[in-house]
Amino acid sequence: MPPAGIKQTQNLQIKLDNLGRIYSAGDYVTGTVILNAQRLPFGFVRIVIFGRCKTKITRYTSSTKDRMSRSDVYRGRRALFEFSQPLYDDKISSPLPGGAVNTFPFALQIPFHPSGYGDHYKVGPEFLPTDGDMTRHMLPSSFYYYKDGSSNTQAFVEYALVAEVLKDKSASKSIFDASMPFPFLAPTTLTPISDFRIKSDANLVTIRTLRLLAEHAEGKFTAGQKFKNVFKTSSVPGYVFTLRVNYPTVIQLNHPAPVPFRRPSPKSASQNSSSPSEQCTHSALRVHIKSNTEDRVQDKYYWSFPTFGGDDFILRAGPPGYSEPGEKPGAPRSEVLDLGNMLDIRLTPMYAHAQQSKSVFVRPMVPTFATYNIALSYGIRWKVELECAGKKEIVDNHDMYVEPCLVLGPAGPPNPV
Questions:
Q1: Biggest CA-to-CA distance, the chain
Q2: Residue 110's pLDDT is what?
Q3: Which residues pair with residue 326 across a beta bridge?
Q4: Which of 164, 160, 162, 161 is nearest to 37 (CA)?
Q5: In sequence order, which residues have a C-beta less than 8 Å from that of residue 343 and are 6 or more positions away?
Q6: Contact in structure between 367 and 278 (CB atoms under 8 Å)
Q7: Rg of the Cα trace of the chain?
Q8: pLDDT digit string, tens, across residues 27-79
Q9: Distance from C-alpha of 64 to C-alpha of 66, rounded to nearest angstrom
C-alpha cells in the first residue's frame, strides 16, 4: 500500500505550473500533460485528481519478521474526493497534430469538503463519522506516518494527480499513466491567534543546602559539612517556594510571536535561612510536543494505536544544544520571566525534530486533524531546570498524563498573493 509517488515516463509526463506550491481548499491545480505516443493506438486522455486516507496494519504472529513469519494484514481505505477532466477524446476532439509531442493544459479545483466513499466505520470519539452530511467536514493536511515494531503500521493522507492514456473512453485499464502528488495544507485562521489558552501549573520546590547560610556561601565544605548536607537534611537550612509555570495548550505553526512560555517570580512559602534575598535562576528549558497517531481499518478488524504512540517533537531554542540562563546573579528581577520570548522559541513545520527510539530525524509537523480512519493529536511536555545556591532542581509536567495541545496550521492562505 505505498502512497502515490512521482511517476514520469518518456511517453507521458505531468508538469505543474507551480512546482513546490502548497495548496489549500478552493485552489486550482494547473499544469500540462505532455504526451509522446504518436505510434500507439489510443483515443482518450484524461487527468484525475484525488485525495484519500489509507491505513495498513501488519500484525506479525512470530518473533522474527523474516520470510517464514506469518502475518495478518488489515487495511482501511477512505476516499476524500476524486474526479477527472478529459483532455482528449478522438470521438469529439479535433485530430492531434502530426508532431511527436502533444501538450494538454489542465486546471482542476480542489473542493472545500470531502465527498468521498470507502470503508464504513463504527462511531468513535477520535474520528469523523462516515455517515451523515460530509459538507460539515474539512479536508485534512497531507500526512505520512510509518512505524515498525510488533505491528507494522502505515497511515497517510495524500493528494495527487494521475494522467491516463486509454484506448477509448470506456476502457477500464490505461495503456500507460503518470502520477504527481502535491502538498495540501488545511485552512486555518485568517489572522494569527491571540488566545493560546494558557494553563498554569504550581509546583512546590524545596532547596536545602548549607550554601543558604552567609558563612558557607562560598568556599569548600569540610567532610563533616558534606555529611551533614547530605544525610542530616533536617538540620540544613531550607528555601521553600512555589514555582508557577504558564504554558500554552494551543500553538499555531509559523506564528509571528514566540511560543508563550512564562515563569512568574517564585513566591516564598517558608524560609529558615539567614539569606532571605537568595534568588533562584533559570538554567535550562526543554519543551516537547508529543504526537499521537491513531488509525483504524474496517470495523471487522478494528485496531488502534496505544495512547502514547507517535513522535516526540523537540522545540529547540536557537542552535542545537543552545541554553541561556534566564536571570543573572545580581540582575534586577522581573515579575514575569518570558522564557519563550527570551529564548525565541518558535514552531514551524520543519523547525522541530522528531525523536523516536533514541534516534532523531526530521519529520514535518502537521496540524491536528481527524479523518474517518486516521486521527492526529498532540500533547505538550516541558521541563524547567533551576539553580539556587549551587543546588539544581528540575520542575516538569512529565507524568503519565500528557497535557493536550492543539496545533493549528499557519494563519492566512498558504500562498499569499
A1: 101
A2: 95
A3: none
A4: 164
A5: 258, 285, 317, 318, 322, 324
A6: no
A7: 29
A8: 999 999 998 866 667 788 999 999 999 988 887 776 555 544 667 778 888 88
A9: 6
CB burial of residue 417 (10 Å; 0-12, 13-18, 19+): exposed
Ranked by mean pLDDT, which of 30-44, 89-103, 157-171, 333-347 comes out on top?
Answer: 157-171
The letter for the amino acid at 365 is: M
Please list, in sequence order, all residues whose beta carbon lies within 8 angstroms of the beta carbon of residue 156, skipping any fewer than 6 positions away: 3, 53, 54, 143, 144, 145, 374
Residue 109 β-bridge partners: 28
